Amino acid sequence: MTAPAPVRRALWLTSAAVGLAACRMSAPPPPIQVPVPSSAAEAPTGFDNRSNGTVDDSTHQADQDVFDEVEELADGLGPLYNAQACRECHQNPTSGAASQITELRVGHLGPDGQFRNADIPIARGTVTISGRTLVNDRAICPNAAFPDSEIQERVPDTETIRTLRASLNLLGDGLVEAVADETLIEIARAQRRTTRGTIRGQALYVPILEAPGQTRIGRFGWKDQHASLLSFSADAYLNEMGITSRLLPDEVTTLCNTASEPNNTTDSSGLADIDRFTRFMRATKAPARDALLAATPAARRGSELFDAIGCATCHVRTLVTAAAGTVINGGADTIPPALGEKAFHPFGDYLLHNVGTGDGIVMAMPEHYGPAVYKIVWREFSIDSVGRTRNKVRTAPLWGVRLRPRLMHDGASLTLRDAIVRHRGEASDVSNRFGKLNQSDQQAIIEFLTSL
Q1: DSSP letters along 370-419, please?
Q2: Are 426 and 200 contacting, i.e. CB atoms less than 8 angstroms apart?
Q3: Which string of b and e fits 324-341 if b means at least 16 CB within 10 Å?
Q4: pLDDT digits over 64-107, tens only?
Q5: Cis link prior to 79 (omega < 30° from 0)?
Q6: What is the residue-averaged pLDDT of the chain?
Q7: Exposed/middle/buried for residue 269 (C-beta within 10 Å: 0-12, 13-18, 19+)
Q8: pLDDT at residue 5 tops 50
C-alpha cells in the first residue's frame, strides 16, 4: 500500500508556547504535523451539496436522494430502529453533516469486572435482545397487523453502564477513508514520543465486512468501529433503521417482521442502498471554515494558542490521503484520482483516547460485524485491543464544530469552554494550560474554534 511520508516531529515553538514556559507550566508538546507532499492538492470544501469530483453532480444528487429517503415498513423498516432516513441523524446544515440526535447505549460489568453487552428483554420478557450495546428508541409494533405485540426496548435496572452518543458528521469522510493506515499509526507513535507516553492514541484494527478476514485501522464511529464506509453504511442501516443488507442480513429480532431478507437488494443499476450511501459520503466535500471569522486577529491569535497549549497533539490540523490507485479496504476499493493525495484539515487524529469522558462501553462485536463475526479469522485483529477501548472515544474532529450546539461524544457540553475544561485523563495537561491562560487568551481560542 502506498503511504504518505512518516510524521515528523515539529521542531519549533510559537511565542505563545515560550510564554507558557516562562509561567512555569509544563512544556507543551509540539503539534503533530503530517508532511504535505508538494504534489498534494487541497481538498475541496463547502456545504453546497455538490460533488468533490469523485462522481458528477447529477449522480451525487441522486445518491443524496437515496440518503434522504424515508424508509417504510414495506422497505423493511425495523422491527427495532432509531430513524427512518439517514438525514434524520446527519443533517445540519446539509445532508451528511451532524445533528443534535443522540443514541442510547448501555451495558454492565460481569463478576470478573469485565464489560458485558446488554441483555434487553422485550415481548413481555419472553425474548431477550443480546449481543448489542445499542438500545433502539423506536419499534414498528404494536401495529394493525400485530396489535398484541410488545417489542419496545427499555433499559433494565441490571444495565448500570449508560451513555448517550451524538451523531457524527459524515461530510469529507471519503478523504478520511483514503488516509493510509500507516499515517494514523505514525501519529499514535509521535504522540507517545513527544509526550513521553502521556498522550497515547490507540490505532485499532477492525474487520472489513466486504472483505471477510481483512482488517484495517478503524476511523469511523465514536469507538473507531469501522474503517470502510461501506461497512459503516451496512452497520447504520441495520442498527439505526433496522434494514438488512447483503453485508448484515440478520435482523436484530424477527418479531413483527414480515419483510423478506435481506430487506435491501441491488436495483437495475447493480447497486443497493448501502452502495449509494457509500458513494454519497465518498463524494461529499469537507466542511468549510468561516473564512471571515478565521481572518480576524482574535481567531488568528487563538490558532497560535491552540497549538501552544498542546491541542494540536490530538486535534491534528492536516492529514493527507494516499495516492490515487492505492488499494484499500482489504482489496475491495481503490482510491480514485479525486481523493488521491489530497490535503485536508479535520483537526482530528481518528485515534482512540482516554480524556476522562469515556463512556465505559466496549463495542459489541455481533452488533457491528454480524453474528458470524467469531467464525471468521480476522487478520491482525485482537479482542484484547477492543477491550482496552472501554473508557476511550475517538478524538472528535473539529471541522464544522461551529455548527454543533451540543459537544463531546455525548452532547452534554453546551459551550466550547465547557468542552475544553471537561478534558481530563490524557488531556489533563492541555486543559490545565488552558485554565492558566488569561481571559483574553482563552477567548481567543474560543474565537478560533468558532471559525472551524
Answers
A1: -TTGGGS--TT--HHHHHTTTT-EE----TTGGG-SSBSTTS-B-SHHHH
A2: yes
A3: bebebbbeebebbebbbb
A4: 999 999 999 999 999 999 999 999 999 999 999 999 999 999 99
A5: yes
A6: 94
A7: exposed
A8: no
